[in-house]
């Protein structure tokens, strides 16, 4: 009992440091709390979130997995795991973790207020997975493009590594380091897009841009919609997925507001957009 109390006190002190942006101190205190009570899953997710702020992605993954080992279907841990996996460029694993967090969230009424945030990460993971597939497709199509993109990636990695060295040695402040990271990532992204545009001129069919607008994606299945319907609260879903969800629970999956099939209305404007998208992109859209 004394150890649990001491762990709770250390956690609270860690939370204070976290809120103040003192993440190294927070990690230290959470670690001390874990030594006192290693069976508390929240201590690992708290430390993992602090480690995310320190860009310690693998350590955050380790904390998330330990929390899951203790608690099982742990929404916070899976959400943390997805974000860290995405930072390490593992979109397939990140998507699986994010979907688990989302399903746990929407099936637990007390956690529904996190649904929109988690859904945003799910979509981000799915887009990252799609982008990786597209990159591989284009590289198989054009070896020269692959060489150019790999050169951009290597140059960007070197720039980011240099920033980490300067930040860890105190030569660069946290805000400046974050701004520099964002600048080099955005610059690299623009270079890749410009490069692909140039290659598309020579091979327009093989280099066609394949993107799915977010507004066409269902908020339950995260698939491209065919028959969108809108609720009385203004949320849009694919008809089949929301009707199926309402069979299990007559509430809006994201808000928990009472909802029945009779409250659903066709979203005619979005249906038109969906039809046009499928007509123009049916050759590859089913792979999304």
From TrEMBL:
<dbReference type="GO" id="GO:0061630">
    <property type="term" value="F:ubiquitin protein ligase activity"/>
</dbReference>
<dbReference type="GO" id="GO:0043161">
    <property type="term" value="P:proteasome-mediated ubiquitin-dependent protein catabolic process"/>
</dbReference>
<dbReference type="InterPro" id="IPR003613">
    <property type="entry name" value="Ubox_domain"/>
</dbReference>
<keyword id="KW-0833">Ubl conjugation pathway</keyword>
<keyword id="KW-0413">Isomerase</keyword>
<dbReference type="InterPro" id="IPR011990">
    <property type="entry name" value="TPR-like_helical_dom_sf"/>
</dbReference>
<keyword id="KW-0677">Repeat</keyword>
<feature type="repeat" description="TPR">
    <location>
        <begin position="7"/>
        <end position="40"/>
    </location>
</feature>
<dbReference type="GO" id="GO:0045862">
    <property type="term" value="P:positive regulation of proteolysis"/>
</dbReference>
<dbReference type="GO" id="GO:0006515">
    <property type="term" value="P:protein quality control for misfolded or incompletely synthesized proteins"/>
</dbReference>
<dbReference type="Pfam" id="PF13414">
    <property type="entry name" value="TPR_11"/>
</dbReference>
<dbReference type="GO" id="GO:0005737">
    <property type="term" value="C:cytoplasm"/>
</dbReference>
<keyword id="KW-0808">Transferase</keyword>
<dbReference type="GO" id="GO:0051087">
    <property type="term" value="F:protein-folding chaperone binding"/>
</dbReference>
<keyword id="KW-0697">Rotamase</keyword>
<protein>
    <submittedName>
        <fullName>U-box-domain-containing protein</fullName>
    </submittedName>
</protein>
<dbReference type="InterPro" id="IPR019734">
    <property type="entry name" value="TPR_rpt"/>
</dbReference>
<dbReference type="GO" id="GO:0000209">
    <property type="term" value="P:protein polyubiquitination"/>
</dbReference>
<dbReference type="InterPro" id="IPR013083">
    <property type="entry name" value="Znf_RING/FYVE/PHD"/>
</dbReference>
<feature type="domain" description="U-box">
    <location>
        <begin position="211"/>
        <end position="284"/>
    </location>
</feature>
<dbReference type="GO" id="GO:0071218">
    <property type="term" value="P:cellular response to misfolded protein"/>
</dbReference>
<dbReference type="GO" id="GO:0003755">
    <property type="term" value="F:peptidyl-prolyl cis-trans isomerase activity"/>
</dbReference>
<keyword id="KW-0802">TPR repeat</keyword>
<dbReference type="Pfam" id="PF04564">
    <property type="entry name" value="U-box"/>
</dbReference>
């Amino acid at each position: 009992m004394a150890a649990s109390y001491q762990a709770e006190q250390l956690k609270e002190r860690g939370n204070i440091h976290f809120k103040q942006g003192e993440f190294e101190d927070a990690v230290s205190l959470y670690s001390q709390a874990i030594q006192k009570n290693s069976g508390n899953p929240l201590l690992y997710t708290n430390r993992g979130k602090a480690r995310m702020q320190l860009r310690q992605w693998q350590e955050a993954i380790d904390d998330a997995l330990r929390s899951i080992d203790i608690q099982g279907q742990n929404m916070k841990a899976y959400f943390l795991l997805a974000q860290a996996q995405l930072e390490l460029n593992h979109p397939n694993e990140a998507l699986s973790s994010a979907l688990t967090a989302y399903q746990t969230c929407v099936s637990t009424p007390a956690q529904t207020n996190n649904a929109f945030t988690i859904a945003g990460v799910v979509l981000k993971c799915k887009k990252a997975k799609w982008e990786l597939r597209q990159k591989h497709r284009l590289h198989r199509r054009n070896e020269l493009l692959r060489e150019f993109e790999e050169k951009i990636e290597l140059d960007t990695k070197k720039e980011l590594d240099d920033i980490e060295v300067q930040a860890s040695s105190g030569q660069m402040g946290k805000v400046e380091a974050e701004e520099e990271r964002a600048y080099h990532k955005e610059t690299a992204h623009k270079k890749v897009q410009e490069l692909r545009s140039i290659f598309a001129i020579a091979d327009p069919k093989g280099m066609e841009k394949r993107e799915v607008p977010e507004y066409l994606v269902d908020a339950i299945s995260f698939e491209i919609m065919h028959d969108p319907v809108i609720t009385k609260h203004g949320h849009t879903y694919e008809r089949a997925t929301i009707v199926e969800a309402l069979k299990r629970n007559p509430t809006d999956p994201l808000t928990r507001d009472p909802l029945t099939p009779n409250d659903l209305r066709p979203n005619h404007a979005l249906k038109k957009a969906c039809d046009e998208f499928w007509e123009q992109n049916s050759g590859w859209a089913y792979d999304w």
